[in-house]
């Protein structure tokens, strides 16, 4: 089982272990591997953000919660995209420096300036 490190992981755990977006509190707690205070802490964070609603026995995952969950694959894709954009930007800056140096040398040669 994947370790729950933050409220996004906890939300993903609830989504994965729910049936029709309903998760029994006791069953989810037993299977989560969290201590009771951490489990309640994460549940309260999600409740404050309106990602889940609760009653005496169940957690109800709202559409807001489902839409705001970021899966590990999506996290990786976003990180990869940010890294790719940064790399492309740095490559363009590097190449423009080389091209500008070549153009300056060409114009110096063209106009006979020494």
Summarize the structure.
The protein is mainly alpha-helical and 114 residues long. It is built from 5 helices and 3 strands. The mean pLDDT is 89.
Task: Provide mean pLDDT, rounded.
Answer: 89
Class by SSE composition: mainly alpha
Rg from alpha-carbon coordinates: 26 Å
CATH superfamily of the largest domain: Winged helix-like DNA-binding domain superfamily/Winged helix DNA-binding domain
With strands numbered from the N-terminus, the spatial order across the biggest sheet is 1-3-2
Distance between the termini: 71 Å
Would you give an account of this structure?
By secondary structure, the protein is mainly alpha-helical. It has two domains: 7-68, Arc Repressor Mutant, subunit A, CATH 1.10.10.10; 70-114. Helix content is 68%, strand content 9%. The chain is built from five helices and three strands; from the N terminus they run αβααββαα. It has a three-stranded antiparallel sheet. A hairpin with a 3-residue loop joins β2 (52-54) and β3 (58-61). The protein is rod-shaped, with a radius of gyration of 26 Å. The N and C termini lie far apart (71 Å). The relative contact order is 0.11. The model has no long low-confidence stretch (mean pLDDT 89).
């Amino acid at each position: 089982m994947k370790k729950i490190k933050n409220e996004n992981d906890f939300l993903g755990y609830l989504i994965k272990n729910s049936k029709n977006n309903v998760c029994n509190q006791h069953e989810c707690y037993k299977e989560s591997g969290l201590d009771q205070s951490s489990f309640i802490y994460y549940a309260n964070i999600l409740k404050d953000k309106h990602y889940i609603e609760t009653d005496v026995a169940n957690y109800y995952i709202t559409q807001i919660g489902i839409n705001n969950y970021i899966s590990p694959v999506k996290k990786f894709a976003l990180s990869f995209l940010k890294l790719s954009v940064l790399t492309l930007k740095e490559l363009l800056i590097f190449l423009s420096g080389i091209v500008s140096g070549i153009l300056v040398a060409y114009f110096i040669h063209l106009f006979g300036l020494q």
